[in-house]
Amino acid sequence: MKKFWNEWIQPNKTQISLGVLILLTVFRIFLFLSTPLAGAGDPGSDDWNLLNHAWQLMQGNWLGSWQDNTLSYGIAFPFFVMLCNKLCIPFMMAVALLYIGSILFFLHSWKALLPSSLVRKVLYVFFLYSPIMMTVYTAQRAWDFTLVPSLIFFLLGLGFQIYQKRKEHLLSQIIWFSIIVTFFWYLRKTSYWVLPLLLGFLIWMGFQLKKEKSGKKIGLLFLPAVFILISGLGISLLNFHYYDKFTVYESAPNETASAQATPSGVLKDTLYTVFHLSANQMTDVDTHLGSGSAQDLRFVESITGGRVLYPNETPLHLKGWAFPTSDNANLELAITDSNGQPLAYAEFENSEDVYLANMEYAASRVSRFTLNAPATDLSQVSLSVYLNGEQIDRLPVEKISTEEKKYHLCLEEAEIQTDPALYTTQKTAKVSKMFLLIYKILGIPAIILTVIAYIGISLSLKSGNKIFQRWIFLTGTGITALFSIILNCIFYPSQAGLDPAAYSSGAWLLTQILMALSIVWFVKPLKLRKK
Asked: How many folded domains does the chain comprise?
């Protein structure tokens, strides 16, 4: 074994580790593509409206005909979906490539802060399989918050590049930084939750440039604001042209009514959810049935190129025959719940084949039935037999044939009919859950280590300016994540039937970055390379 290690593994460890990372990356892309979208095809849902805006953009109709919520959404996500369709790239493939590319860009840009190749590889796998990009909150939705984690990685990577090259030419990095900031800004009207981190960075860079006597470059730091203002002006002009409204956003009437003060209990619950999501204690990936009509779900599928599970409102399907032994009796069949309440009644039709075998019973001429009911668990329902309006029997839902004194019954088929894609996507969900289990086991210890690490770094501030820079970044990241959570509790309150945690993908990722870098910098203190 030692010889094998020395002759084969040790000399080729770089190639082997690269091969493993490539395999993990390819497999992650497969998981992205095979995980079903939680298709929210209801015309009132965020997903459907954003995709409809993308469709209208592709048709050259701007955002389509005017509705109360037309200007409630940002333009960035519909533009991204339109671009995917123009380039013939399925939405989930584009999301996968964008997310993987953003992680690589972030880790490459932060090489000076993370000089250990092993640490960068571990962090790559950690973020690659992060539950944040597996749950129904993000990667299982075709909406704007799916792009937030990728954009945060790009912003952090570009921000550190600007810092590193502050004594060189900054224009190209600042332009790219401004483009990403502008795209992020117009994802949704609440995108200003990123301001604490963004403004903190720009102000700090301004002080650095002034201290290093590079005051002329300070003007470049205003480019993000210029890009946002110019883009906002263009969007407002287009909205004025199409809808006679010179504005970027306009809240829908019901949206304004729901944005009320949020009780502290909701904030506490959202904080609990987000931090547990970041620690992977409340994350899961599953096969979520789509909602909405088949036509609307087909629209979601066609514009995203993704897989949507079609719901069946009456998945329980029964087929057979039954008739009363008395010619004057009226027999009915129904699926009843555990409380005996009918969920659906059988429909009878002519049955000459049954009559030929039971000619002594006149009622057997109309005895074949079909019964479709809204039930998915056979153990929770029963087949109830009614005679002249009175229940006389309750039978288990299974293939049976019985000849009672008052009736004869044969149940030939009893099955749950669902979208066939449900079975294949369940395999994907099981594989993803295997990875999530590892994160869930490590989640709580990671939170404890993060607290210890942050306190340790805080106590080391006197060690030098570079430790202070790391502490400032970690603190700013935590403040921004908290600001995002508070903002979401105000704009997406649970009283209005919304889940604030569903709008917090940015807060989840920032929290995970805070956890990962706190532990790395505390366990293995590193020195910044001098530039």
From this structure: 2
